[in-house]
């Protein structure tokens, strides 16, 4: 069973930055794709950013130019660096890791951006 441990959420004012971390119990090369999702109040869960085994990245239009997904292979950890945060970025952020068989989810971490 895959375990995902998230950290880095918190309260920040508009224009600030946060870095979310997702530590896995296995090598990140065990997964075909990893990513970050979020669920804002009153909205469906949406994809924020993804990264494949070979490093191909994709971003939601709303975060392009502000967020960066990256990884540290030696630490089995994926990051989401968030800059220029806006109140509309307020959401619970979830880490996800997909094998060829199943997608695993982290517990979620709250990000709150004040105006």
Name some characteristics of this structure:
single chain; four-stranded antiparallel beta sheet
Short description:
The chain is mainly β and 115 residues long.
What would you say this structure looks like, in words?
The chain has 115 residues and is mainly β. Helices cover 0% and strands 53% of the residues. It contains no helices and 11 strands. Strands 2, 4, 5, 6, 9, 10 and 11 form a 7-stranded mixed β-sheet that branches. The protein has a 4-stranded antiparallel β-sheet with strand order 1-3-8-7, with no helix packed on it. It is globular.
- The percent range for helix content is under 10%
Give the low-confidence spans. Answer: none
Quaternary structure of the protein: single chain
Morphology call: globular
Cα distance spanning the termini = 40 Å
Question: What secondary-structure arrangement, pairings included, does this model have?
Answer:
Layout: E1 4-7, E2 10-13, E3 18-24, E4 33-39, E5 46-52, E6 57-59, E7 67-72, E8 77-82, E9 91-98, E10 103-105, E11 109-114
Parallel strand pairs: 2-11
Antiparallel strand pairs: 1-3, 3-8, 4-5, 4-9, 5-6, 7-8, 9-10, 9-11
